[in-house]
Amino acid sequence: MLKTIRRFQHFNKDLYTKPKMFDRWKQFVHARKLFKYWLRFVDKRSESIKSDMHYAFDKWKTFHPN
Fold first, then answer.
1. Count of CB atoms within 10 A of residue 31's CB?
2. Quick one: residue 46, left, alpha or beta (phi over 0 = left, psi -120 to 50 = alpha)?
3. Residue 27 near residue 36, CB atoms below 8 Å
4. Mean pLDDT, range 13-37, rounded to an integer
5. Do residues 38 and 32 make contact, with C-beta atoms less than 8 angstroms apart?
């Protein structure tokens, strides 16, 4: 809903591409952050000590004693 309101606020017959540009920029930033996250994840998995700690933390985090 907020995106629609912003589009109406920026509506101009000559410059309607402005909201589309903002959407593309947000998509680019999201993809860049996602790529950075996966690079860090793979880097941690490549080092044995960090990988073992990561596995142990995930196991501890998801452990639910019943």
1. 10
2. alpha
3. no
4. 82
5. no
Token reading at 1: 């809903």
Alpha helices in the chain (DSSP H): 2-9, 17-46, 48-62
Cα-based distances in Å from 5 to 19, 28, 64: 11, 22, 44
Percent of the chain with pLDDT over 70: 77
What's at 16, amino acid-wise? Y
Q: How far apart are CA 2 and CA 50, in angstroms?
A: 42
Distance of CA 61 to the CA centre of its chain: 22
pLDDT at 43 over 70: yes
CB 32 within 8 A of CB 22: no
Neighbours of 6 (CB within 10 A): 14
